[in-house]
Specification:
Shape: globular
Strand content: 15-25%
Distance between the termini: 15 Å
Radius of gyration: 14 Å
CATH architecture: 2-Layer Sandwich
Helix content: 25-40%
Strand order of the largest sheet: 1-2-4-3
CATH superfamily: Histidine kinase-like ATPase, C-terminal domain
CATH class: Alpha Beta
Structural class: alpha+beta
Oligomer: single chain
Number of domains: 1
Number of strands: 4
């Protein structure tokens, strides 16, 4: 993946912070599962939390600025993460984790470094 390292780190930090907050607010603890694997002509990063999950009505607005699925959330973390991913020609999606919780899928295209 070729891109702005600082921006991509920011996007990942926002996603991980949201997952950790969802688990904490649900009174659950445990590791957030993170997986990285090749996917088509890019790479997919998958984050699974064991929080309460997201109702469909919240999920539809989740990437809008100031929309939050968490009490007291500012609603900027996911909007910023999505903007960063789109700037890198990637995709960001949120869905249900099998067994409960939330699954976030971040896909970024593979890039070649010029030599």
């Amino acid at each position: 993946v070729v891109g702005d390292r600082g921006l991509l780190e920011r996007a990942l930090r926002n996603l991980l912070a949201n997952a950790a907050r969802a688990e904490r607010d649900a009174g659950r603890s445990g590791p957030i599962e993170v997986a990285l694997e090749p996917s088509g002509d890019g790479f997919e990063i998958r984050l699974d939390d064991r929080g309460p999950g997201l109702p469909a009505a919240v999920r539809e607005r989740l990437f809008e600025p100031f929309a939050s699925g968490q009490p007291g959330g500012a609603g900027l973390g996911l909007a910023l993460a999505r903007r960063i991913v789109l700037l890198h020609d990637g995709e960001l999606a949120v869905g249900d984790r099998p067994g409960g919780g939330t699954r976030v899928r971040l896909w970024l295209p593979a890039g070649e470094i010029a030599t």
